[in-house]
Amino acid sequence: MLSQVKQDRTKMGQELRAVFVATLDELITKNQKVITLEADLGSASGFANLTQKHSQQLINVGISEANMMGVASGLSLTGHIPFCHTFAPFATRRAFDQLFISGGYAQTTINIFGSDPGFAVGPNGGTHTSWEDVTLMRMIPNSIVCDPADGIQLAWLIRELADKAGIHYIRANRKAVREVYETDARFELGKGNILKQGRHIVLFAAGQLVSETLDIAEELALKGIDVTVVDMFTIKPLDSNLVIELSKTHDLMISIENHSVTGGLGSAIADVIAETGINAKLLKIGVNERFGQVGCPDYLQDEFGLSKDKMQAKILDFINKV
C-alpha cells in the first residue's frame, strides 16, 4: 500500500462533487436502474448537470430530506439503486428516523452522500455543521460508513457500494482536497490502509485529515518519533484485526477525525481495545462538546483544534505525559 501514496501531496485534486457526479454518470450510463436524488442542492452538488444526459435519473425532492430517504427506500423496493445527496447533518440527523426504519429496518438499499462534514461546512455555520453524523449512521444495524481521503478513493467507493445492498453512508467535502493516492490505488471495504510504517506510535486517520496526518508523521520523524499512519476510511465495519495487530508493536495509538470524539472513529477503536483487552493507550483527536460556527474552513479547522500544528501539539503532549 505504501507505493500507492502520492509523493507530492501538495496538489489539490478535482472537486469531490465533480468526482461524485462523473462517477454517477458512468454508473447510470451502464445501468438505468441507478437513480439520483437531491434535496434542492443540485447546483451546489453538481447533480443538476446529470439532467443533460440523464433527465429521467434525477429527482429533486426539494428541501425535504426525510421524504427523500423515503422515496429512495421505495425506489429500492422496485429494483432501483438510489444515490441521495444533501449536506451531512440533513442527510443524517434530520432524516435519521426514515433512514433507520424505511431504510435499515425495511432492509432497503440507500446510498447517501453527506457533504461538507465538520469544518468543511465553512460559512454555512452551526446549523449546517455535523460533528455527529458518523455516530448516527454507525447506529443503523449492518450499515456501512466511509470517510474517503480524496477523489480517487471516493470514486472507488461509489462504484463498490453501487453493487451492494443496504444502507451506505459516505461523508466528504464537496470542494477539492489534497490528493493522497495514486490513480491506480486499490482498496478493500473494511480494511485499513497502512500508508507509512513506523515503530513507536500509530495514527489512525479518516477523511481529508489523512493528508495532514501524513504531514505530521513526517515532522515527527525529524524529532526521532517513528510513526505508522493508517487510513481507516471504512469506519464501519472497522478493521478490528489491524487495530489488534498494531497494538502489539506500537506503544501509543491516536485517532484523528473531522468529527466528534464521541461515537466516531476514535470510539470505534476504543471499543476494540475494551472488548479485546488490549493493553494500549489511546488519544482521540476530534471535537469535544462543541457546536459549529460560522467561518471559512481553514479558520474553523484551526478553531476546532484540527489544524496540523494543533494536532501535532496534542500528539507531542500525549507522548510526553505517558
Automatic annotation (TrEMBL):
Domain of life: Bacteria
Cofactor: thiamine diphosphate
The UniProt record lists the keyword Lyase: no
All residue ranges annotated as the Transketolase-like pyrimidine-binding domain in the record: 14-179
A Pfam family it matches: Transketolase_C
Cross-referenced SMART domains: Transket_pyr
Keywords: Thiamine pyrophosphate
Entries under InterPro entries matching the protein: PDH/Transketolase, THDP-binding, Transketo_C/PFOR_II, Transketolase-like_Pyr-bd, Transketolase_C
CDD domains found in the cross-reference section: TPP_PYR_DXS_TK_like
Family the entry assigns: Belongs to the transketolase family.
Name used for this protein in its record: Alpha-ketoacid dehydrogenase subunit beta
UniProt source species: Pseudolactococcus laudensis
